Amino acid sequence: MAQPSENKTRLPLAFEAVYRYLVFLPSRQIANVPVPNRFFAVAEDGELKVRGLECRRHDTPSLLKRIFERCTRLRSFTFRPARSLR
After folding, report:
1. Cα(4)–Cα(1) distance, rounded to whole angstroms?
2. Hey, which residues does 50 pair with through a beta bridge?
3. Whether the predicted pLDDT of 58 surpasses 70
4. What are phi and psi of 72, to 5 degrees?
C-alpha cells in the first residue's frame, strides 16, 4: 500500500497501526470543518490514540481521562463504520 507513494515521493513511509476507526473532531473556529490535529482512534489491538483533546492535557483530572478512555473503548466494541476506506 505504501509502495506507490514511496515511489512517487521518494520518501519512506511506515505504518504505525491499523485502526478500527478514526474520528477527526471539528475545528474550534469552524464547527463543521474537521481538523487533522484533533482526533481519537482505536487500533485493531484496542490501543487508544488521542491527539489534541483535553483528556490528553497534564492538568486534566485523572477521573475525566479514565471516563473518556472507558467510553471510547466501549464504543470501539460496537462501532460499525458507515463508510470504510479499505
Report:
1. 7
2. 40
3. yes
4. -65, -40
* Cβ-proximal residues to 25 (8 Å cutoff; 6+ apart), any chain: 34, 35, 38, 39, 40, 52, 53
Residue 20: phi and psi, rounded to 5, are -65, -45
pTM recorded for the entire structure:
0.59
Cell of 67: 471516563
- Name the pLDDT band for 68 (thresholds 50, 70, 90): confident
Residue 21 banded pLDDT, cuts 50, 70, 90: confident
The CA angle 77-15-17, to the nearest 5 degrees, is 15
